Please model this.
Amino acid sequence: MVEREYELEKRKYVIAGVAVFIVVIYTIRLFFLQIMSDDYKKNADSNAFLKKIEYPSRGAITDRNGKLMVYNQPSYDIMVVMNEIKDRLDTIAFCQALHITREEFDRRMATMKDRSKNPGYSRFTQQLFISQLSDRDYSIFQEQMYRFPGFYVQRRSIRQYEYPYAAHVLGDVAEVSTADIEEDDYYQPGDYIGKLGVERKYEKQLRGEKGMQILLRDAHGRIQGRYKNGAFDRRPIPGKNLTLSIDLELQALGERLLEGKIGSIVAIEPSTGEVLCMVSAPSYDPRLMVGRQRSKNHLLLSRDVWKPLLNRSIMGQYPPGSTFKTTQGLTFLTEGIITPQTQYPCYHGFSFRGLHVGCHGHASPLSIVPALSTSCNGFFCWGLYHMIGKKEKYGSVQKAMNTWRDYMVSMGFGYRLGVDLPGEKRGLIPNAEFYDKAYKGSWNGLTIISISIGQGEVNATPLQIANLAATIANRGYYYVPHVVRKVQGEPLDSIYTVRHQSMASREAYEYVVKGMRASALGGTCHALGRYDFEVCGKTGTAQNRGHDHSVFMGFAPMDKPQIAVAVYVENGGWGADYGVPIGGLIMEQYLHGKLSEASEKRAIGG
Model:
């Protein structure tokens, strides 16, 4: 009897334990359903409300003179709430209304539901089905939309580019990628984002802030109006407008002058660092990167062997050639390696201990001013040789080399300048460690002599060369070049308003300016002597495995400079062949507002 009572007692506890376990399981499940999971809330909300995003208008972009370059045009997206699609959607009629095939319908549906491609997918919220309908297609679909429950039209805007110029500066806008969404939770699938140029760099200013309408549904899903008369709606905030520093007329001329060529033109206002034009050739029409044809056109451009998508002005890394001799003169004068009266011989080049660096014929010996005017290789080779070998001043070639490197860096070489465009390259300025590694510590001035004339290991972007011209124009300082002059409602970033001082002395700059002016009057830039404003210039002929590159750097007017220019034409030959005439035309256009009749003929002649 006692044993039977014990068994009953055990069963009572087991039954009670099972009951408690079941209650706990149900409680946990209810907790997750009601508190931790929002599936039911989403379902209920989607039945009662429709949250409609209102997209802001993207900021417009104008040139420095107020000419509208980029604006917005209306566009329409088809959105879908999968939870609202009826079981018997007339797919054939739907495809006909949108002029798409059944295969495209199935592909779009599969892509939308693929969480690896659309991590924000939810059957309760609006998802992008198809974007950028034309006005005509939108009108046709709107008339039949009542037949397709769960599908909605979302009004958007797309970019329009007014002119076929400045594609590399402006950039473009395209649909966000998965990486964009993961990086910034502002975006959701189907949103647009700047991909290149200022559209990318100033994305947060241009995009504005989204708004939202909360619409109330009835039991049949029909829209009844705004929830609580719009008390919880949020209006979109338009993006901020940008004013570029680019002069559209100057940009158009630059692109015309580089038609059929490979290269770059960069012009800078020395007193501010504002970029007046930035041309990269070959280029493309930014209007190709708009609408539903963007992907196709982008693919074609990316496969083009001439690389029109490459912004050579900030991504091309080239030997600066003889334009670099100005930096050498500044360094040698400031360091006391030479004086303004120091003369070096040049017998068709630099010849010493079996090493010969050739040069064209000119008077010899000569000092810094005529050396710059005639672009003498021998003079600057001797200067570097004496600097690197001056152990009584530096103690070692390594210390001399790093001192040289510091001068180059202070003039804007070797590192990114910080222009407000994505993708800028840094170029290359070697230091002692670079050569110690290359030559196992056994090297001297003769080993590296070619860097004195802008060859060898030295590389620079056209932007850096233009910045050098601006620094010389300012007699020793520069502002970081920038293509945006003004952002609506906010100050320009302080990085673009701070002076950067070169290590070279003011006196050294004055002698270099004299040399560049002499070059324009009777030296390698003598073609510039015809202008009625005082031009200072320096040619460059950068050696290349194929035909040499034609390079020019200059500024004008000499005493109150308003424009500094760099021209780089790949395989263009002598600097005087293409660089000088193109540079002169750019300066004339900016300073006079137009080309003379004679200059226009030269421009047409290429």
Notes: The CA atoms of residues 450 and 456 lie 5 Å apart.
